[in-house]
Amino acid sequence: MKPCWLVVALVAGGALTGCGSNETSSQQPHTSPESASTVAAPATLTARQYQPPKQRNQGGRPDVVYDPCTYVNDETIKALGLDPASRERDDFLAEYTIFDCKFKSTVRRVTISSGNITMEQERTRYAGMIENLTVNGREAMIVREPEEVPESCALNMRTDQGIARISTLLTVEGLYQKLDRCDGIVDIAKAVEPTIGKGK
After folding, report:
1. Is 123 domain-assigned?
2. Whole-model pTM?
3. Which among 33, 73, 104, 121 counts the fewest CB atoms within 10 Å?
4. Checking DSSP bridges between strand 83-89 and strand 130-135, what pairing results, if any?
5. Could you report the per-residue pLDDT of 18-56, keeping only the tens digit for each?
6. Within the chain, what is the greatest distance between any pair of CA atoms?
7. In which domain, by residue range, is 82 found?
């Protein structure tokens, strides 16, 4: 398992692609060509620095299709009080895949992730720390780790390939304002969930 990947500040760095480009993002739909192993879905952002890297999954894990860094547009991020200019990829690529897209605001850091780790694996890993709920009708759970990073919170949603996750970490300003660590996480998930795609 990827260590501490629910913590925005501690996400392990993965392979990055196209980071040298200064190309600005576009909101025009874009369809990636299909490969033999992946059914591509339309991306909302086409700037090269936001494109997902090649996956190298093992053990029969499916390729991750939902890519938050290209599917969640700037308008959605602005509406959540986050800075679109802070958009940054931080993927994990090994025998399984986690696509991470990080954003910032004055009170919290937010990572939107998509991976081919299953909800069942997450339920086992975080047993005793879970609050079950649904987000726009999709199976979900909030994870509150008790001691390791008490200012962090995570919300997992089931997808066809595994999970989509919202991870939040309060900043010094957020702690000063005495925000609860899970404040706003359900609202973020409700705004992000439609970008996964119906039935996916």
Report:
1. yes
2. 0.74
3. 33
4. unpaired
5. 333 333 333 444 444 333 334 444 446 767 777 877 888
6. 51
7. 28-195
